Amino acid sequence: MNILIKLILSGSVFSTVVITGCSNIPEKSPMSQVKSGMTRGEVIDILDAPNDVSQEKTWRADLIPWKTDNDYRTVYSYEGLGSIEFDRGGSKVVQNINYSGVKEEQK
User: Fold this and answer.
1) How far is CA 37 from CA 67, 93, 105, in A?
2) Is residue 25 predicted with pLDDT exceeding 60?
3) I need a labelling partner for 52 at 20 to 30 A (CA). Which of 12, 68, 79, 86 fits?
4) Do the Cβ atoms of 103 and 80 come closer than 8 Å?
5) Alpha-carbon distance 98 to 107, whole Å?
6) CA–CA separation, 65 and 74 (whole Å)
7) Confidence (pTM)
8) What is the DSSP secondary-structure string of 13-56?
9) Are 67 and 85 in contact (CB under 8 A)?
């Protein structure tokens, strides 16, 4: 189940955070073994190499005037399973798991 949290800050600045709960990932799926806080290496050990790796801009890139590692996040995409988002700060760990389940549903 997706939980949508809306934060209203100082009246004019509006931010939306979507937290994707892992409870909707079936236990038989390899994606269910991926947990928040895991490293990139741990994810690759479970899911193998991703089909695609991309860098996506975060909200910080446009809002904060100085540049940091957190302006972008790394996204590993797995065809038919979903994607895993990693932070680019010092820890470089799983921040979000987006499960699509297309591959499992077709079996």
Assistant:
1) 24, 5, 27
2) yes
3) 68
4) yes
5) 20
6) 21
7) 0.66
8) EEEEEEEE-GGGS-TTSGGGG--TT-BHHHHHHHH-S-SEEEEE
9) no
Q: Nearest CA to 38 among 3, 100, 85? A: 85
Q: What is the CATH number that goes with domain 25-106?
A: 3.30.1450
Band of the pLDDT at 30, cuts 50, 70, 90? very high
Contact call for residues 20 and 2 (beta carbons, < 8 A): yes
55-90 per-position pLDDT tens digit: 887 777 677 777 776 677 889 999 999 999 998 766
Burial (0-12, 13-18, 19+ Cβ within 10 Å), 73: buried
| Residue 101 DSSP code | -
Which residue shows structure tokens 């549903």?
Answer: 105
